[in-house]
Amino acid sequence: MLLENLARAIEGDLGDEDEIIVTGEHEANAGPWKKLAKRNGLELRYWHATTIEGSSNPYAVAHDVNTLLPLITENTRIVAITACSNILGSVVDVKSVVKQIRAKAAEKGAKKVEISVDCVAYAPHRKMDVRDWDVDYAVFSFYKVYGPHIAALYTRFSTLPNLTPLTHHFLSPLVDKISYKLMPGGPGYELPYGVTGVLEYLLSISPISGPTSSASLKDTASIYSDPETHTRLEATFAAIARYEHTLVKRLLEHLTSEKLAKRGVRIVGEETASERREPTISFVVVNGETGSAISGKDIVKVFDAKGNMGIRYGNFFAYTLVDSLEPKVDVNDGLVRISLVHYNTIEEVDQLIEVLDEALGPPHILPALRPFFIAGQINVKKFPLEKRLRAPQQDIEDTDGHRRNRANIHAIFDVSNASDPPDNTLSTTSETTPEIPRSRRNIRESKTGNTETVSILTMIRSTCVHPITFKDEDGPIHDIRYATSGLLVSTATPLSGD
Length: 498
Ligand SMILES: Cc1ncc(COP(=O)(O)O)c(C=O)c1O
Hints:
Blueprint lengths: L1 H9 L8 E5 L7 H10 L2 E5 L2 E2 L9 E2 L2 H4 L7 E7 L11 H15 L5 E5 L11 H4 L3 E5 L9 E5 L34 H15 L17 H4 L1 H29 L2 H6 L1 E4 L11 E6 L10 H11 L5 E3 L4 H5 L11 E5 L6 H14 L6 H4 L3 E2 L2 E3 L8 E3 L5 E2 L5 E2 L6 E3 L26 H6 L7 E2 L2 H9 L3 E4 L2 E5 L7 E3 L9
Parallel strand pairs: 1-2, 1-5, 5-6, 6-7
Antiparallel strand pairs: 3-4, 7-8, 9-10, 10-12, 11-12, 13-14, 14-19, 15-18, 16-17, 18-22, 20-21
Pyridoxal-5'-phosphate (PLP) binds next to loops.
C-alpha cells in the first residue's frame, strides 16, 4: 500500500516518455509501478532473475546487475529494485547496484532517475542503510522485523517537494510542507508506538552491550541519533548474518546433496551458503532418478500434520518470478519455502531435514513403484497386470477390529520383488489413524483426464506411521508396514482387462 501511495504521489512528476524498471519479484514492489506505467502509457521493463553462471540447475537464479544495466536508457525515470527476493534469499548489493544504475543513467543522459528499494525480505536479516545506499525511497515491514503489523516508507527529503500530496486538500498549506504529504488520512497511534520495541529488541541482542531503550537514557531522544546505537545495530546484524550462515549451510548442504538431487530436489535461488545468502530457502521437487515430482502442497501437508513446524508452498506473491522460471513450474502450487531467522537452531534445522526426508516419500515404496507414480499418485492403469493380485474374497478386519467390506479393497499389489529391504520402513510416533479411501467419491475426485489415478500416497504414509495388519480367518493377509511385501490399494475401477 505504501508503494501504491508513493506511485500515486509521483504521478504528477512524470513525463510522457518516461520509463520504469521493476524487479520481476514480489507483486507489492511491481504492481504499483506497473499500474502507474499503464495509467500514463509509459514503457515498463523487467529486471528478471537469471540462471547463475556455471550452474547446471536452471532454477538456481539470482538478480544479476549485468542484466539490469542494459535496460537503462535516457528515458529511465524510476528503478524499483529489491534488496532481497522473498523467494531466492540472495542479498542484492544495493549500494553497488545503485551506483552502477546512476553511472549508467548519467552515461545515457537520463535527466532524473529515482531509485526505490523493497527491503521487506531483507530487513529481518541485514541492516538497511538508506543514506549509504543513496536510494530515494525504501520500504520494509515491521512485522517481518519482530514488530507489529505495520510497514514503513522512507523518502529522501529532497524528493518531497515534487510529490503530490495524498491528504485532504483543506490541510494545505501544511501539506505543501512535509509531514502529511504521503498520509491519506489521520495516523494510527498504537502500532507506530509498538514499533519502538523493535529497536529495543535488536539492541538487546547486540554483542555490544549498552542501553536498550530511550527510557534508560538521560536524554530520551538520543538513542536514535546516537552513533553508538548504529554501531551496536551493525554488530547485531553482523552477528545475525554469521549465525544464520550456519543454518543456511546445514540446510543447503542437505538439499543439494547427491541423494536429494537424485530425488529431484532443485533449489530455487543460490545453491551455496554465504553471508550474502539469507535463510530463506526455496525448492521444487521435479522428476528425479529415484522419485517422481511431488507438489509443494503435498510436502507442506506432511509438515502440517506434525504440527510443530511451519513451512509453506506457493508463489509467495512473487508471481512474476515463479512464472518466469524455466522449465515451467505450476505458478499456483509454486515452490516450497523454508524461512528461518536468528532464533532458529541447528537442532530445528535437523528436525526439519528429518521431516523433509519423510515428505519426499517413504524410501521402501519408491524403487518398485516409482515408475507408476505421477505427482504423488499411483497410476493404476500403468501398473503391470502381472503384479496385481485379486482381492481377497473374505471380509477383512483391521487390527482396530473394524470390519472392512471386501468391496472396498479391490487389489493387493504384489511388490515382493521390490529391491528395497523390508526393514526400510518409516517409523514415527504419530497416532494418526489410518484412513483407507473407501468411497467412489474419493476416486472420482482424483481423476485426471482419462487416467484413473488413486490418491494413494497419503494412505501409504498413514499405514506406515500407524501399522495395521489386515486379517482373514486364516490369519494376517498383509502387514502394511512392509510395503515391499504388499501394497494395498482401494480403487473403484476393475483392475483387469484394461
Ligand atoms: C519482498 C517483499 N516485498 C513486499 C512484501 C509485502 O509486504 P506487506 O506484507 O507489508 O505488504 C513482502 C511480503 O511478504 C515481501 O516479501
